[in-house]
Write a structure and sequence with these properties.
- With 427 residues, the chain is of the alpha+beta class.
- The chain is built from 10 helices and 12 strands.
- The protein folds into 2 domains: 210 residues, no CATH class; 193 residues, no CATH class.
- The radius of gyration is 34 Å and the shape is elongated.
Length: 427
């Protein structure tokens, strides 16, 4: 029965092809606007996410002590008890404590001087840093270090009249680290060996990692007193979440314990929130076009009913029920929406390809290319400024069809409620 009603609805639509084309045209414009505007925000969001680099940075959560406005410590100390508490949070893959050198560690290579943030870490935790080595190996030992990717590029010649950064081969050079005591009255020289250089682009670009016991020994010498196990605290703690999705809940759980927590994942969540808002706004703008198209569909269906009033009466006279009449006109309205949605989707794919190809053909600058008015580097995602995922395409088709059904509902109800005698008397 439904198939017969559907064939009748298709036949009725084809009787007024010109009017059908104009009505469908409005749905096409609205559907295309919704798809392209939302697809633009998806492309920009993916470009922004690609700019964060390695996915490991998105699972990092830096834990710091919390301080009040008066400078007082308002959080639990970063001690061994904190390590235990953090490790018990659901979604935590690793808890890595760091101890910073309490003095400046100047590194000398021949006539050149440099340095970086000197951090002590347990050698067993190095694989959990989420960083790879571009040179050497990820191994530290007594007076053996791993350096960040930018440390080697920040050396200088103290005899030069103008500062000029100099790059030093840290792995194959003889290095001496000079550490100053608290008063600056004496120094300690360490023959330093760098075993590996981290790949640039991480949060450790300017760090120098030594075994944590080495830093403890150096800090005792710098401060002139042994470390007290009862009051010993770490400088900072790195919490590694099991996945990008769990990073947010883990960070929130850390804050509930009283610590300050932050990382790339939090910033990414803010970015995603911004793009979600943008998607709603631009989707609403496209929705206005679909709303206008809905009035066109309603007007078309109303005119069709007025023209076919006598026909409706004949249908009821030969046994058609109110439900049958309602179904016919709702199918017609749904087909108008579906045809407009399919055509709009096809046009959207064509425009998507044209825009993306134009973006790829733009001249690339030294930064890897992009569009000057966008705060993202589109070269990182292959120049795909407009992205239409499958779920967006299906959503657009469903929305266009729903708009057609909703727009044709009142006219269809009007047709279904017509009295058979009055409909037959209509000229």
């Amino acid at each position: 029965m439904f198939s017969e009603l559907a064939r009748l609805a298709v036949h009725n639509l084809l009787r007024a092809r010109a009017r059908l084309a104009m009505t469908v045209g409005g749905v096409i414009v609205g559907t295309t606007a919704v798809i392209l505007l939302i697809a633009l925000t998806i492309g920009l969001q993916r470009a922004a996410e690609a700019g964060f680099g390695e996915s490991s940075a998105l699972t990092e959560i830096q834990v710091y002590p919390g301080f009040g406005r008066d400078g007082s410590d308002t959080s639990p100390p970063l001690d061994n008890d904190a390590l235990i508490a953090l490790s018990q949070i659901e979604g935590v893959a690793a808890v890595i404590p760091f101890l910073e050198l309490a003095s400046w560690g100047q590194i000398q290579s021949g006539d050149y001087f440099g340095g970086g943030q000197t951090l002590g870490v347990d050698p067993r935790y190095l694989p959990y840093l989420g960083a790879n080595v571009s040179e050497g190996e990820l191994v530290i030992g007594r007076n053996q270090a791993v350096a960040g990717g930018i440390v080697a590029e920040n050396f200088y010649d103290p005899q030069a009249e103008e500062y000029q950064p100099i790059t030093v081969d840290l792995i194959n050079s003889e290095l001496v680290m000079t550490v100053y005591n608290r008063d600056g009255t004496s120094t300690r020289d360490i023959d330093l060996q760098v075993n590996g250089i981290l790949t640039p682009g991480t949060s450790y670009d300017y760090a120098i990692f030594l075994p944590i016991q080495d830093i403890i020994d150096l800090n005792e010498w710098v401060m002139g007193e042994p470390a007290d196990p009862d009051t010993f605290v770490y400088s900072q703690i790195l919490v590694r979440a099991t996945s990008r999705e769990t990073a947010g809940p883990v960070a929130e759980a850390i804050r509930e314990l009283g610590f300050n927590a932050g990382g790339m994942g939090d910033f990414l969540n803010q970015i995603n929130g911004f793009f979600s808002t943008m998607r709603l706004v631009l989707g609403g703008v496209g929705g206005v076009a679909l709303l206008v198209a809905a009035f066109g569909v309603a007007n078309t269906m109303t005119m069709a009913i007025l023209e076919r009033t006598r026909e409706i009466g004949l249908m009821k006279a030969v046994g058609a029920t109110d439900r049958d009449v309602l179904t016919i006109f709702l199918i017609e309205a749904a087909l108008v929406g579906l045809l407009g949605g399919l055509a709009g989707l096809g046009i959207s794919y064509v425009i998507q390809n044209l825009i993306n190809q134009a973006v790829r053909n733009l001249p690339q600058g030294e930064g890897g290319g992009g569009i000057i008015f966008l705060p993202v580097d589109l070269s990182q995602i292959g120049g795909n400024l407009v992205v239409i995922p499958t779920d967006l395409a299906l959503f657009a088709l469903a929305l266009a069809t729903l708009v057609g059904v909703c727009a044709g509902l009142l006219p269809a109800l009007r047709a279904a409620r017509m009295t058979t005698v009055l409909a037959l008397k209509t000229e």
